[in-house]
Design a protein that fits this description.
The chain has one domain: Rossmann fold. Helix content is 44%, strand content 14%. Strands 2-1-3-4-5-6 form a 6-stranded parallel sheet, with helices on both faces. The longest helix has 29 residues. The N and C termini lie far apart (36 Å).
């Protein structure tokens, strides 16, 4: 990744932080804007911010996401709108602004960080699952539209990864029960997801595009 410029959202912790560290280790210049600079809750501001970028990133990783838990019948409109804004609308506006610019240069790599909950279901993840399923559809649409222009677009769907969000949304008993059933027999590490993302975003990958790649220790194979 020497000489490549990467834009990573959600780069302050968890998988996003691991992606930033891995990219820098591979020689990329990484830009991970804090919320004070890029407020993903404000979709219009996201679009304006992306359009104003003077340098077009070679790589875009949409990692930032929120997952407030709620039974489907109790999802509040405000919470639903916020989940859509951060998890789907912000990536959409970043891709809409930057993918055509990548295509003009004939090179680009985009990875959208999705979730296994876009592939299988679990109670109280309704809004989150809907947003991530939309992200998968956007990934396929971008790959089809820009594939001939050298822009490779994929999604990675992490399962149970040892991050703050996993601890926040699952009790220790829940985590232990999941681990007991996982084919891998353990939680994943953020660095393992980052390694997959790094490959998909590298020049080594020019043909795998439009895919949703589960990184879940075999969870979706159960």
């Amino acid at each position: 990744m020497n000489g490549r410029l990467a834009l990573v959202t959600g780069g302050s912790r968890g998988i996003g932080r691991a992606v930033v560290d891995r990219f820098r280790g591979l020689g990329a210049e990484v830009f991970a804007p804090p919320r004070a600079e890029l407020d993903l809750c404000d979709p219009r501001a996201v679009g304006e911010w992306a359009a104003a970028l003077e340098r077009t990133p070679d790589i875009l990783v949409n990692d930032a996401g929120i997952n407030p838990l709620s039974a489907f019948g109790e999802i509040r409109d405000d919470d639903f709108r916020e989940v859509m804004a951060v998890n789907l609308e912000a990536p959409f506006r970043l891709c809409r602004a930057l993918a055509p610019r990548m295509a003009e240069r004939g090179y680009g790599r985009i990875v959208n960080v999705s979730s296994v909950w876009s592939l299988v279901a679990k109670p109280r993840r309704g809004a989150y699952a809907i947003s991530k399923a939309g992200l998968n559809a956007m990934t396929r649409s971008l790959a089809v539209e820009y594939g001939a222009s050298g822009v490779v677009v994929n999604a990675v769907a992490p399962g149970f990864i040892a991050t703050e969000l996993t601890v926040q949304n699952n009790s220790p008993e829940d985590v232990a029960a999941v681990v007991a059933d996982l084919p891998a027999g353990r939680l994943g590490e953020p660095g393992e997801v980052a390694e997959l993302i790094a490959f998909l975003c590298s020049k080594r990958n020019g043909y795998c595009t439009g895919q949703v790649v589960a990184c879940d220790g075999g969870y979706t194979s159960l």
